[in-house]
Write a structure and sequence with these properties.
The chain has about 220 residues and is α/β, with parallel strands linked by helices. The protein has one domain. The protein contains eight helices and seven strands; from the N terminus they run H-E-E-H-E-H-E-E-H-H-E-H-H-H-E. Strands 1, 2, 3, 4, 5, 6 and 7 form a seven-stranded mixed β-sheet that branches. The protein is globular.
């Protein structure tokens, strides 16, 4: 009888180990879904810009409050990882990176080397590998995430969709994800190619939803 009881208790403890899957769960209302990131550099620090979705405005346009569908938050630090952790001082929710669509890196940062920057994104356990990496030329990387387009008011999603559709319909287009970039960077006799984005004209009205009410979008 005693032996039988010990076996039952042992089985009970083993079953308890299977019930710990939700110990580190986060509810949706506690997360900030990051869809775009931009990395710039000043004299000493990296400047990280995160673009978070505004679910209340995206879910229903009828009940929305008229706010922007995304919010850009910026932090500056010695490393990208530190900047990301310090974002909690400016955002009321925990940054969730698995929905990342595009990573914009300034040309100045890219010239210094991408290995130490991309290492964080490659190793983070929450990151997916299907986001695109692009270079901002003659502009700050965060300026690329500021522009609202007429057909997609979420800038990061607009860039992602444009690249994805261009890959399917235009043979002259090449896009690269972080896995593909690491493979090409470590391969012998290989030179990775990255998308380059450049704003033809930086206009203040391109950052406001009021711009979408105009029929002529050529100057935005």
């Amino acid at each position: 009888m005693k032996k039988h009881t010990i076996i039952k208790v042992t089985h009970a403890f083993l079953l308890l180990t299977l019930l710990t899957g939700c110990w580190d769960r986060w509810e949706l209302n506690e997360l900030s879904l990051i869809v775009g990131m931009a990395i710039d550099h000043d004299d000493t620090d990296y400047i990280l810009t995160m673009q978070a979705m505004n679910p209340a405005e995206i879910a229903s346009q009828e009940t929305g409050r008229g706010y922007a569908q995304a919010m850009n938050v910026q932090e500056k630090s010695k490393t990208v990882h530190e900047s990301l952790r310090r974002m909690v001082q400016k955002s009321p929710r925990r940054a969730f990176l698995s929905q990342l669509k595009v990573l914009v890196i300034s040309e100045e940062v890219a010239k210094e080397g991408l290995e130490h920057i991309l290492d964080f994104f490659y190793r983070d356990h929450e990151m997916r590998s299907d986001f695109y990496i692009v270079i901002a030329r003659n502009n700050k990387a965060h300026e690329i995430l500021d522009i609202i387009t007429p057909l997609e008011t979420l800038p990061s999603q607009s860039i992602f969709d444009s690249i994805s559709f261009s890959l399917r319909s235009y043979a002259g287009t090449k896009a690269i994800t972080i896995d593909e970039l690491f493979q090409e960077m470590t391969a012998e006799a290989s030179s990775p190619l990255l998308w380059v984005l450049q704003l033809k004209e930086i206009s203040a009205k391109g950052k406001h939803v009021k711009m979408l009410s105009q029929l002529d979008q050529k100057r935005c």
